[in-house]
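Weekly modeling sync, notes
Attendees: S.R. (lead), two postdocs, one rotation student

Agenda item 3: backlog of single-chain predictions. S.R. asked that every request posted to the team notebook include the full sequence so nobody has to chase files. The rotation student volunteered to paste the first one in as an example of the format we agreed on. Action items at the bottom.

Example entry:
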Amino acid sequence: MCVSAGIEVNLSAVFPFVQIPELSKGSVLIRERSRVEETLQAMRRAGVSSLQVRAHSHHILFVVGSLQMKELLNTYYPIEIDSNRSAEEKLPLMVEWWTKVHELLIQQKIRKDMLTQAVKESNAMLRDGYKEFFEHLAEHQVPLLIFSAGVGDILEEVIRQNQVFHSNVHIISNYMDFDQTGVLQAFKGPLIHTFNKREGALSHAAGLRELQGRPNVLLLGDSLGDLTMADGVSKPHNILTIGFLNDQVEERKELYANSFGIILVKDETMDVPNAILRYITSSRDNK
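Predicted structure, as returned to the notebook:
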């Protein structure tokens, strides 16, 4: 599918991605199809040693699961995805949201030794196809940076319990600060929220030696704020962005089509990212 001037046209039969059939799925929207194909070919020619991956994670608030936490989500998430508000309008409200979340977590005196069990008993899930995604990147030693406005300690535990926390995985998120008795007393460092991931990208990328010499970026996000996760890449050559669009699809489709190279509409799987990784790493130079 392709979006042009607000109109969807099925061009998969005319311009098929013969080597990546997943890109012809009905859930895939691509505005500049030739440009995406050129980027993919350039990334494949450059080889896996030139690649890094940057991805978002969903909000993870299930550990507490309180009514107050759900009320905050119901209040502020609609603001986050409101296509009629600018990022400048949303920014103070996102800070307000996540500040309240952190205050609520601190009030609940969460214990460090309870996180493992809390995650185990939760319904937290990674996207279908996550195992192939993590394993493929680990096998080829491709750095994976995961940005989250949630809680890094919890996200790490989710990934660890799914047995895919490999040495190439780096998480940029809000981390808990526990006192000597193991009780949450504060959060470390500056607040990371949906619209300031650029700062996290710049500061964290600067300290990772394994990112050097990797000017090609595959970026996965579900908000326009996620597009800044590619900032800080030294002399970028090719950046391919994939946007997951699951809520308010009709209202936001045009905006996403103008912002992301590939849009996945109501597709919670990793089928397309995995297919792209297979394509990039299947060249002769990568074997």
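Discussion: group reviewed the output briefly. The two ends are 32 Å apart (CA to CA).
Action items: rotation student to repeat for the remaining queue; S.R. to check formatting next week.
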